[in-house]
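Morning!

This is the sequence you dropped in the shared folder:
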Amino acid sequence: MVILAFDTSLAACSAAVCVEGQATVEAQEEGQTGQAERLLPMIQEVMSKACVTIKDVTAIAVTVGPGAFTGMRIGLATARGLALVQNCPVIGLTSLEVVAYALQNEMICQGEDSARPVTVIHDARRKEVFIENFAGGDTAGLPRSLTPGQAVSYGQVVEHIADGSVAIAGTGVPLVMPQLEAAGLQDRIALGVSPFPSAPIMVKMAVELIQQHHARLGQAVRPVYLRAPDAKKPARISLLPEGLAQ
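The structure's back. Tokens below.
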């Protein structure tokens, strides 16, 4: 089993490949732009280091959002294109649940109860963040959503953090630090967990889903926006005289 995973949903580009459960080869670069130019070379880089080609890939994991509209579309289009060539399944993971899984893994490493609630907060721009609360694993050992993911203003973030949440992470945390500090929640910020969706973590999640023959494997992969995209269709402009533009 060869699993390829990659993320371009936020301000980073990450790719990883795992061969037969052995050590994962990974690469990651941070940056608001450039995913379109960097993703395929990064995929080729990790596959070359793992001594495999796209013909060996048996499953592809990709983040479906929420995040930057352009980055999400780049990742999804790449995953669908590669899967079409290889005739392999695409596993969609949200950018929020990937970081939640990383949080729960960190809690296990620290000897803590991974069933306790955690909160992931990502930058949504427009002075908003995406937020979702999770608890201990579902039947596949993946994070279980406690509250639907949603976009909220900085001032609303504290009221959307679940009672008893013991760890907070994500790219939006620095943006809402004043609100977290005012609520006395700054000590719950998980400094040891990457705020970005990690491709190696995505590989682990994909393995769990495949081993459990999870129902998500048969689901269509669609983008998760949580709000309307920033880009708007331009207003229709008529070049005809007013009386003829009907």
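Headline: The chain has a mean pLDDT of 91.

More detail when I'm at my desk.
O.
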